[in-house]
């Protein structure tokens, strides 16, 4: 893993680490940052992620839903991010539908 992500993760700055992982656009790093967050931190981290990363986050979460045994944890991420950005999701529903489809279908 990239060294400059270790410090934010070790200092419980999961929102910062996740933002850095989005800039790197490395799927494995994004997933690692998602899975490293404590369940109690998910609402704060999800609300601090800018909406412009919505599509990328939903792609990573959809993939994790299909391949991870931690279904409830991943669904919590989906729920909290959608709660935090619900208005923007509604406004952009046509363009975001492909990103939401795997979560919506529930093929996990």
From TrEMBL:
It comes from the Eukaryota. It holds the Pfam family Utp12. One of its GO terms (cellular component) is Pwp2p-containing subcomplex of 90S preribosome. Transmembrane segments: none annotated. GO terms for biological process: maturation of SSU-rRNA from tricistronic rRNA transcript (SSU-rRNA, 5.8S rRNA, LSU-rRNA); ribosomal small subunit assembly. Residues 25-105 form the Small-subunit processome Utp12 domain. Keywords: Repeat, WD repeat. Coiled coil: none annotated. This is Small-subunit processome Utp12 domain-containing protein. The lineage of its organism: Eukaryota, Viridiplantae, Streptophyta, Embryophyta, Tracheophyta.
